[in-house]
Amino acid sequence: MLKIRMARAGAKKKPYYHIVVADSRSPRDGSFIEKLGSYNPMLPREDQNRVVLNGERIKHWLANGAQMSDRVAIFVGKAGITDMPAQKNNPKKAQPKAKALERAKEKAEKAAAATEAANTPAEEAPAAEAAAEEAQG
């Protein structure tokens, strides 16, 4: 299966990516069929050379059955080359998992117990002060 994906280039701490068409079984930085563009994450977001794409060739490879990686699909969607969405929507990803829900529930129970404990002595304290005043007076 063919994939349109990124292959890392550049030096250590200075990444640079080529957007390539490669066999899905080949390694990330291994051999590829054709270079379709580049991505330089070191440039500011507004720079026009941050993402460079060859739209005609991307359309050609998509017509021949190539699949895009998620990151490349976002780049292509933002560039308007295909009608792919610029961002995927995954609302379940933002929801907390089971352990986080348990911890939140325990924390809420502890907070409720603490406020209840704080309210109970506060009510008894004025009654104790009133009893002390009557004893003196």
Describe this structure in words.
The chain has 137 residues and is of the alpha+beta class. The protein folds into two domains: 2-91, 2-Layer Sandwich (S16 Ribosomal Protein, Chain: A); 96-136. The chain has three helices and five strands; from the N terminus they run E-E-E-E-H-E-H-H. A five-stranded mixed β-sheet has the order 4-3-2-1-5. The chain is elongated. The chain starts with a strand and ends with a helix. 13% of the residues are buried.
Whole-number mean pLDDT: 85
Distance between the ends: 94 Å
Uncertain residue segments: none
Main beta sheet strand tally, sense and closure: 5 strands, mixed
Strand order of the largest sheet: 4-3-2-1-5
Strand content: 15-25%
H-E order: EEEEHEHH
Give helix % range. Answer: 40-55%
CATH architecture of the largest domain: 2-Layer Sandwich
Shape: elongated
Label the structural class. alpha+beta
- Please give the number of β-strands: 5
